[in-house]
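Structure (tokenized):
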């Protein structure tokens, strides 16, 4: 017997990657752009700020933020081709962290969590760098790459939640939905 439709989550994000992951997991959602200005590098704080900036009324609100960290330094979104190539060159042959913060909240409660996935790039040649940068996929991407696209060709190995690298810590979200809404969204 089919379960009744769940109340959609409010996704406090305009990220197409986050929307695609929620669709993949068959979690109903509506998008509301957050009214939050990021400062600092704490993805949990940013996720909470995004979720708190949206009024979900009776619906649960989901906020997420993801950063790329190499040796303690946060690699944001490159401003131009030169900066993108420099970031990718630094990641070449090395392991970095993709860290996400997640906030799931209602008017009655709030759950905060974080997830870290380790990503190792293969050693990149100047041709690899030039080809990837020329494709333009680096634009608007923390760390200058998108693992779900051509950026997959840069990666040698990942340890942890692949979807976290794409933009949403899915395993963490599913666990929280199973705990807080057992059966409602198809989990737990």
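Design, position by position:
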């Amino acid at each position: 017997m089919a379960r009744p439709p769940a109340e959609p989550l409010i996704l406090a994000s305009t990220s197409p990657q986050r929307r695609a992951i929620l669709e993949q997991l068959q979690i109903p959602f509506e998008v509301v752009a957050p009214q939050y200005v990021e400062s600092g590098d704490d993805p949990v704080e940013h996720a909470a700020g995004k979720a708190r900036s949206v009024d979900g009324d009776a619906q649960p609100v989901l906020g997420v933020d993801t950063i790329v960290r190499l040796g303690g330094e946060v690699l944001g979104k490159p401003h131009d081709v030169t900066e993108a190539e420099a970031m990718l060159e630094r990641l070449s042959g090395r392991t970095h962290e993709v860290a996400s913060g997640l906030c799931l909240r209602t008017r009655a409660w709030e759950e905060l969590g974080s997830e870290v996935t380790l990503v190792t790039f293969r050693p990149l040649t100047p041709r690899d760098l030039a080809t990837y940068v020329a494709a333009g996929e680096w634009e608007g991407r923390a760390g200058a790459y998108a693992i779900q696209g051509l950026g997959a060709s840069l990666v040698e190995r990942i340890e942890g939640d692949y979807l976290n690298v794409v933009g949403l810590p899915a395993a963490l979200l599913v666990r929280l939905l199973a705990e807080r809404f057992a059966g409602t969204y198809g989990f737990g």
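Reviewer-requested clarification: Strands lie at 9-11, 29-31, 61-70, 73-75, 95-105, 110-121, 155-159. Residues 98 and 127 are 25 Å apart (CA to CA).
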